[in-house]
């Protein structure tokens, strides 16, 4: 995301290009972006980024927006040059233009001046980048010291952006604000408890102990200062403001996360159609799990207590690693053709203090840091299997890991931009949900327990479309709904509906609703993205008839790089 402010971007690799084609423009953009955003550099595996953090102030974010504007101007010229309309150049230009246009629309609406969330904010980015910053040598820990010392300035820049938002009467939601204050409190530590950064630094070498402790203490103090300002100044200022965003802002964010201008009313209706379809399938599986169950979620509650489960945090990490290893062995050579470095993926436990949902981080560009899945335990030590299997097909294999690692593997034949920072959320989340369905189609959900868990996860994504669009646009609940027919959605009704239609615990449901309120339009990309992948596959199969090769199609599809949903269907259908 980008924020408002200043003048044109003039320095960096973009200004040094001579008669570039679109892919060169795109890759120069990545180089320039890394200079402004070292967090991106770290995720790409660049050691020189390890000691730095971005400027999240209005002026710093303006530099990112100015870079986008300059890049679009350079792209206009590049497309007119001989060779600028080749298939490879055309596809890259298509993505670059769509992404930067969507990002600038967010910038021009001053959205970053109210970027408060329980999962996606500059403060979350600052904390999470330390989990992928290299720490294998004393030299790498020395860079960590510098990055820790940069935390106060980064958080202060973020505070300045929020303060400008208050001045302009651009408010974050009260509910995400309250949750965020709680997260900052946990990260800050105090009263004899170490802060998150103190705990992180404690693993460093004794030769740097004094510097690490001092820098970590400064980072924790900066977190506490931001917490105090959010609690004492920001929260009172936004009290009474709506948590929902309305149609105009929702349409803008929907474009940002989905890479297309959606018909939101059609998408809402599609969410309901999937809800009714999935409910029928869930009832059939629930009858096998717990005959006579009143609802599928009664059967899931039964599985929480009596179903297969894993005991212990280390044990569940190892078990999830096994799920991914088994999937790779079964799928490689049959339904996919995987390079050796793509086959490597690690299961990790997420650091405490974040949101409740599992997530994935991609490999570095040279694969020295592998792709990793992360499980937030939320203090639990007992983990039902039904809730994990399809989730790890989604986060790991054949989901996020196979797509994002394959992009990295083929980056030289794409462009660096297509393989990394040009990612469209709905493309990736749609593939991961498609991957869950693929594993069901291939027969990997071998019993009613696991299949009911898969359908529950599918239902959660259908419910996301319903409640995310419904509550932000204040739509009417259809007359054929078993839940409050004819009423208008509110966040309170959304949480009640989500809780009634999910096998997940109450704290997860609450975290999810807060996420939807602070990231409007992102949660719908899972189901709508899956629909795009299924449509693209169906079109390709219809075009090829009996000669359709699913393995070849999967590998070609995974080697396209990122695309928005309309462009994705078009390109998938050509394969």
Automatic annotation (TrEMBL):
The protein's superkingdom reads: Bacteria
Using the UniProt annotation, give all residue ranges assigned to the region (Disordered): 1-20
The name this protein goes by in its record: DUF885 domain-containing protein
Q: Give the species this sequence originates from.
A: Streptomyces gougerotii
């Amino acid at each position: 995301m980008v924020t408002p402010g200043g003048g044109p971007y003039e320095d960096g690799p973009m200004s040094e290009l001579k008669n570039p084609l679109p892919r060169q423009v795109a890759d120069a953009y990545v180089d320039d972006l890394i200079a402004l955003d070292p967090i991106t550099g770290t995720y790409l595996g660049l050691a020189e980024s390890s000691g730095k953090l971005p400027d999240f102030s209005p002026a710093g974010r303006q530099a990112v927006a100015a870079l986008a504007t300059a890049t679009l101007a350079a792209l206009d010229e590049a497309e007119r040059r001989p060779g600028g309309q080749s298939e490879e150049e055309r596809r890259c230009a298509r993505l670059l233009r769509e992404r930067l246009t969507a990002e600038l629309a967010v910038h021009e609406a001053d959205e970053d001046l109210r970027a408060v969330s329980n999962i996606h904010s500059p403060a979350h980015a600052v904390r999470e980048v330390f989990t992928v910053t290299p720490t294998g040598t004393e030299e790498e820990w020395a860079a960590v010291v510098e990055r820790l010392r940069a935390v106060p300035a980064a958080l202060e820049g973020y505070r300045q952006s929020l303060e400008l938002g208050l001045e302009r009467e651009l408010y974050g939601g009260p509910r995400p604000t309250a949750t965020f204050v709680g997260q900052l409190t946990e990260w800050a530590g105090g009263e004899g408890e170490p802060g998150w950064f103190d705990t992180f630094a404690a693993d460093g070498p004794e030769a740097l102990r004094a510097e690490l402790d001092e820098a970590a203490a400064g980072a924790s103090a900066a977190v506490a200062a931001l917490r105090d300002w959010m609690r004492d100044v920001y929260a009172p200022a936004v009290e009474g403001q709506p948590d929902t965003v309305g149609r105009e802002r929702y349409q803008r964010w929907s474009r940002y996360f989905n890479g297309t201008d959606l018909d939101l009313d059609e998408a809402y209706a599609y969410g309901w159609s999937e809800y009714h379809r999935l409910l029928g399938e869930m009832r059939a599986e629930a009858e096998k799990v717990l005959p006579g169950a009143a609802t599928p979620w009664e059967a899931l509650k039964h599985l929480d207590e009596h179903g297969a489960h894993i005991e212990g945090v280390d044990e569940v990490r190892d078990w999830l690693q096994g799920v991914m290893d088994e999937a790779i062995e079964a799928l490689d050579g049959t339904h996919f053709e995987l390079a050796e470095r793509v086959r490597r993926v690690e299961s990790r436990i997420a650091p405490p203090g974040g949101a409740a949902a599992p997530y994935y981080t991609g490999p570095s560009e040279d694969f020295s840091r592998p792709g990793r899945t992360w499980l937030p335990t939320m203090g639990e030590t007992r983990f039902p299997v039904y809730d994990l299997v399809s989730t790890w097909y989604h986060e790991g294999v054949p989901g996020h890991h196979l797509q994002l690692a394959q992009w990295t593997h083929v980056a030289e034949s794409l462009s660096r931009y297509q393989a990394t920072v040009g990612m469209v959320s709905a493309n990736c989340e749609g593939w991961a949900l498609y991957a869950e369905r693929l594993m069901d189609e291939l027969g990997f959900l071998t019993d009613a327990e696991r299949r009911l868990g898969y359908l529950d996860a599918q239902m959660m994504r259908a419910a996301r479309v319903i409640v995310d669009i419904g509550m932000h646009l204040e739509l009417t609940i259809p007359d054929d709904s078993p839940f409050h027919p004819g009423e208008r959605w509110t966040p309170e009704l959304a949480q009640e509906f989500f809780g009634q239609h999910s096998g997940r615990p109450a704290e997860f449901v609450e975290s999810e609703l807060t996420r939807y309120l602070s990231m409007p339009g992102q949660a719908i990309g899972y189901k709508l993205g899956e629909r795009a992948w299924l449509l693209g596959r169906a079109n390709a199969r219809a075009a090829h008839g009996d000669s359709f090769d699913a393995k070849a199609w999967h590998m070609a599809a995974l080697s396209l790089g990122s695309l928005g949903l309309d462009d994705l269907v078009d390109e998938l259908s050509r394969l």
